[in-house]
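Q: Could you write out the predicted structure for this multi-component system? I'm mainly interested in how the pieces pack against one another.
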Amino acid sequence: MPILEVEHIRKYFGHTEVLKDISFSLEQGQVVSIIGSSGSGKTTLLRCLNFLERPDKGVIRVNGETLFDADDAKTQQESEIRKKRLHFGLVFQSFNLFPQYTALQNVMLAKELLAKELPNYKAERKKIHDEIEAQARELLNQMGLADRMANYPHQLSGGQCQRVAIARALALQPDILCFDEPTSALDPELTGEVLKVMKELAEQDTTMVIVTHEMAFARDVANHVIFMDDGHILEQGDPMEVFERPKEERTRQFLARFTQG
Amino acid sequence: MEHILEQLPIVLRALNIGFLQTLKLFFVTLIGAFPLGLVIAFGSMSRFKPLSYFTKCIVLIVRGTPLMIQLLIIYYFPGLVLHNPVWGGGETGRFFAASVSFILNYACYFSEIYRGGIQGVPIGQEEAGLVLGMTKGQIFFKITLLQMIKRIVPPMSNEIITLVKDTSLARIIALQEVIWAGQAFMKGSQGISGEIWPMFFTAVYYLLWNGILTVLLGRLEKKLDYFK
């Protein structure tokens, strides 16, 4: 069974249809890259998965459970959406770290707030806190940020910020980790260090949906590539197929600059 | 000079009493205007259009007319025009009317500062909180609030320092604040008359108090400097 199934998603902003009948699925441990020019709807699609936007039509299922169905109001209750979001993690283009917290606190905050809802929170407060902190330190270590835990975001480089943001998303152990152009705000050198940790995550079979303009990364790391154009999925499939033998003229055009260079 | 030294203890005692009234008006205004300003800010940001227009209209009127006129209208209108002197007589009534005028006036200015502070926090902060499974309340108190406070401290400091000096406007309805107390020595009070220096001297009170506030607010600003 696929971990993620997206069926016939449509989304309008006013009268403009920005997502036109989007369907795809994803297996556990797979990495899918979504490529395409700006304004093609890639980011909106990710935002729909994370319930930051509400699709006007379509169904989203995770592990067979229907999280969202545009025709079923029961799946759209505010109180439930908060829990459903936790199936997904999202790493933003602009990091969106919380500036008043250190790297470590950024990673711990959400988990600590969720822990307060546990029935045994009061009794085992200290133990729970220590576990959350240990996990956060482990994640930051994994991101190569062992010596940056006590730093505030403004004291970190863009690449370090983005790695903290990845650790923050991983801390909640989402089923599917989404990236929205995670390196678009970074210079080439810093881009490399972020792509490196993303590649490591892929090797550890983290299920990821990555919107990116890094074509080499999409080709080499992803198991599946989706090419979006004007709100449609124009072409999808094995990265080698899509990159080497694109079926659509539009895909060829888009990839031309990359493949020539 | 000699007579000034003789008069000084009497004058200082009178000015201290007047300044106490000034401080009372200052603190009452802040205590009332801080929360009311937030209410007005939420009103003007409301998605319910009639409420937002109504609030913006009030803010326009209050910010667009002199505080002195507002004081006069609020104090005299009920008694002289409606023949219903709601404020009662004497110093208590004047203080009450002055407090209402100042709170309303300053709340409108504060509301605009709050609005700027709230809207100045990038939307990405809220979205980051949402995707991490936080509730709206958690997002406001754990993420947005402190960033908003950091943004509003400098403009708020400005308003607070202006408020210290604006309290002197309550003199227009004969509130016995520090300038009124200084002026009394021109007409004659406690055996001193025809002296203008006590009124000039009140400036020292404002300056000292604003000096203290500047230091305190500067410290607060510095304290919030640990993040950007």
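A: Regarding packing and overall arrangement: The helical segments of chain B are 2-45, 49-64, 67-81, 90-120, 123-131, 136-166, 178-187, 197-223.
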